[in-house]
Design goal:
The complex is a heterodimer of chains A (365) and B (287). With 365 residues, chain A is of the alpha+beta class. Chain A contains eight helices and 21 strands. The radius of gyration of chain A is 25 Å and the shape is globular. Chain B has one domain: MetI-like (MetI-like fold, Orthogonal Bundle), CATH 1.10.3720. Classes of the chains: A alpha+beta (365), B mainly alpha (287).
């Protein structure tokens, strides 16, 4: 995967709309056959980047190269990309088969071949036999599948998806996430997904570019992104993170020696930190809720332990989220525990022992 | 079901002023015209025995046929010209005017601020023998003597009507174009269409309801127009409505006038239905 050639190279891309700057110097290489996500809050520029790749907007500065070819002055209808629109953009005056075959008409492949291609694409998205349906007879999920089939049938190098699942209900969305992912893996086509839903990005992607304010804040695999977010902003955007005040010495070739008032003193391996982080810049560290453990007879003892008081509990069935006040911490921390068999749910006001490990400390830029 | 009947009572009460108005002012006169068309004028009296003689005359007399054909021809030319000229304006308004759309729409309606009669007279001033156009062309040395084919004939009627009805054609087309989801156009482009092909495959079919509406709005009233032909049409620009007016007035043959009116109503209705279905066929079932 790591050596795959880049299918899309984005070099120093900037984009302004009048006085508003949407993208300021974006660099990224998207590899052939990967599922790549552009993740960020609304208005961060992720959709603009997707539209620049599709050719609906022109870059203000920098270049976009697709398949080794610079895309400057190449209009959307000549680019090897196809888009699944957020609104699906199903042509209302055409039926499903005509929608899916829309782009094939230009390829002059003959009616029989076209029908075959359309049927195959519809079968791929589980809509076999729906060809005669009109657009207004379809449900939201079916429209989404038609939009996908319409892009797939063109056999593009890259499929661009602009928040394709945001209009679907939760259950359908979960199902489509897996279907999209397995379809992408079996076809080997590069997918670029724009989403504001961090969970969706984590589930579906090979790599994720987190975009804030028109720049890529971090580009990493889902696991790296979750375990080693580079900045506090990324850390709070992806999942839940406890931020604890801290100060540090050391760094470089030697371990960082951290003093965390809430937890105590601990040495952290330099490899665990973002590259080039200076100890003087460390004012806060992150710990994920599931990295803390509330000790009972079954959990044994931990490398580091600290006493705390439960101030509130949120019971989710499979999980319980505890808010625990630690003596040295300015704010209480959130701790999540899986409700395994035999595990008692601690009540509010209970005194608990919290266990944690040095490898769960996230150093932030 | 008392609740439902109460609801329908409420509905009828709400509707009744309009309904009464429509019945008295529209349905009743129309019914009278139809009744008249089956009677006979007997000097100052009406012979109320049922007869189809008026229709026989209306459909067989060459003068009526000529007038009907001319009316249809003129109003079809007017409609085609108006809609073809209105489409680019509506398109420009909808797709290329970013701010101040309302101002543009407002400006399009400016001609309505003056009376229609005044506007027709203005065309006489422009197109007349010593009119603006002729004197300008003569001063420029392009022509030696005034052009006479531009006023008091069918051309002048077409020109005047096309100008007068332009806003009625622009507005429905503009609204249909505004309703087109712009992502559909991007999708068509994304799937390989250039601008022309995209226009033919997406924009035009989806704008069809507006085009049909514009066509009918212009066609139906222009067939029956009698002011314009009278003022700028000369003798060979007269239309069927002028003849209907003459029958009801000077000729004192209201039954024949009524038969002519009902006949042209039937002809126009038939053509309109044809246009409606043709538009629907081309535009597909647009929801």
């Amino acid at each position: 995967m790591a050596d795959a050639a880049p299918i899309i190279e984005i070099k120093d891309v900037t984009k302004s709309f009048g006085s508003v700057t949407a993208l300021k110097g974006v660099n990224a290489n998207i590899r052939e056959g990967e599922f790549f996500s552009l993740l960020g809050p609304s208005g961060c520029g992720k959709t603009t980047l997707l539209r620049l790749i599709a050719g609906f907007e022109q870059v203000t500065g920098g270049t976009i190269v697709i398949g080794g070819k610079p895309m400057k002055d190449i209009p959307a209808n000549q680019r090897p990309t196809n888009m699944v629109f957020q609104s699906y953009a199903i042509f209302p005056h055409l039926n499903v088969a005509e929608n899916v075959g829309y782009g094939l008409v230009r390829k002059k492949m003959g009616k029989a071949a076209m029908t075959k291609e359309v049927d195959e694409a519809l079968a791929m998205v589980d809509l076999g036999g729906y060809g005669e349906r009109k657009a207004h007879e379809l449900s939201g999920g079916q429209r989404q599948r038609v939009a996908l089939a319409r892009a797939l049938v063109m056999r593009p190098k890259v499929i661009l998806l602009d928040e394709p699942l945001s209009a679907l209900d939760k259950k359908l969305r979960d199902q489509m996430q897996h279907e999209l992912r397995s379809l992408q893996k079996s076809l080997g086509i590069t997918f670029i997904l724009v989403t504001h839903d961090q969970e969706e990005a984590l589930i579906m992607s090979d790599r994720i570019a987190v975009i804030f304010d028109g720049t890529i804040a971090q580009l990493a695999t889902p696991e790296e992104l979750y375990r080693r977010p580079a900045t506090r902003k990324v850390a709070s955007f992806i999942g839940v993170m406890n931020f604890l005040d801290a100060s540090a010495t050391g760094g470089g070739d030697t371990p960082y020696q951290l003093t965390i008032p809430a937890l105590g003193k601990v040495n952290i391996d330099a490899a665990q930190a973002p590259a080039g982080l200076s100890a003087a810049d460390i004012t806060v560290v992150g710990v994920r809720p599931e990295m803390f453990t509330i000790l009972d007879e079954d959990t044994g003892s931990f490398e580091h332990e600290v006493q705390g008081t439960v101030t509130s509990t949120d019971y989710y069935g499979d999980m319980t989220y505890y808010t625990v006040a630690l003596p040295g911490a300015s704010d209480p921390v959130t701790i999540s525990m899986r409700n395994t068999a035999g595990r008692a749910v601690a009540r509010d006001g209970a005194k608990v022992t919290v266990g944690w490990g040095a490898d769960s400390i996230v150093l932030l830029e | 079901m008392p609740r439902l009947s109460q609801e329908s009572r409420q509905g009828l009460t709400l509707l009744s002023p309009t309904l009464a108005y429509a019945l008295v002012m529209l349905a009743a006169p129309l019914a009278m015209v139809v009744m008249f068309s089956f009677w006979t004028q007997d000097y100052l009296d009406l012979d109320k025995t049922f007869t189809l003689a008026n229709y026989r005359e209306a459909w067989t007399q060459p003068i009526f046929q000529v007038l009907m054909w001319r009316s249809l021809k003129i109003s079809l030319i007017v409609t085609t010209t108006t809609v073809i000229l209105a489409f680019p304006i509506a398109y420009y308004l909808s797709f290329h005017v970013r701010s101040r759309k309302a101002l543009w729409l407002f400006l399009i309606t400016v001609p309505f601020w003056t009376s229609y009669l005044l506007r027709v007279f203005l065309w006489k001033v422009i197109l007349g023998y010593n009119g603006v156009l002729n004197s300008a062309l003569m001063n420029l040395g392009i022509i030696d003597e005034p052009l006479t084919f531009i006023l008091y004939n069918a051309n002048a009627v077409v020109l005047t009507l096309a100008h007068a009805w332009a806003p009625f054609a622009i507005l429905p087309i503009f609204i249909a174009l505004e309703k087109i989801d712009r992502s559909l156009l991007e999708a068509a482009e994304d799937l390989g269409d250039g601008p022309l092909r995209r226009f033919w495959r997406i924009t035009l079919p989806l704008a069809m309801p507006g085009v049909v509406a514009a066509t009918l709005i212009v066609l139906i009233p222009t067939v029956g127009d009698y002011i314009t032909p009278k003022l700028v049409g000369g003798t060979d620009g007269l239309m069927v409505a002028n003849m209907i007016q003459i029958q009801f007035g000077k000729a004192n043959n209201a039954p024949l006038g009524a038969a002519l009116a009902v006949s042209s109503m039937i002809v126009v209705a038939t053509i309109s239905i044809g246009i409606y279905f043709a538009g629907k066929k081309f535009g597909g079932k647009v929801k």
